[in-house]
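It is worth pausing here to work through a concrete case rather than discussing structure prediction in the abstract. The textbook approach is simple: state the sequence, then state the predicted structure, then interpret. We follow exactly that order.
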Amino acid sequence: MSNRLDQLDYYTLLQVADDASKAEIKRSFRMFAKRYHPDCFIDASAEKRDRASEIYRRGSEAHQVLTNEDERLAYDAVLGRGQLRLSPEERDRAGVPDEVWEITDEDRISSPQAKNLFRQAQCLEGVGKLRDAWKLFDAARREEPGNDTIEGHVMRISGRIRSGL
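Step two, the predicted structure:
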């Protein structure tokens, strides 16, 4: 991993204060995701795609930890000891059980093709291309029929398109 990326704590990476609210962290992560999501780099060189993926994974890790109260407390404790990341070992030492790790919508999709379409749709939605995002969410739904998570995103974005948001 890049030396610079390895030197950033979660707060710095997401550009939030250490006392930021959950809403501020989520808002910052949305901006972060619009900039670094790997699917936004589909046409870029392999080196740029890999770098964006590396940065995005670290940002997702930061978002996951900082928006979960237990994980954030554990992270603040290890950060005070000079650790910039919350590893599974440090999480165990801090007494945070495995069950608190958040399951994302993407984790609820089993088909690799549906996952890929879902990620691309989220990226397009993030930059305001709602109709294109809907097409990809719908393709993901066809790829993995009966998945309630994908279905929910199709319905949500359909509503956004109808309401003109």
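Step three, interpretation. The chain has two domains: 3-100, 106-163. The chain has a mean pLDDT of 85.
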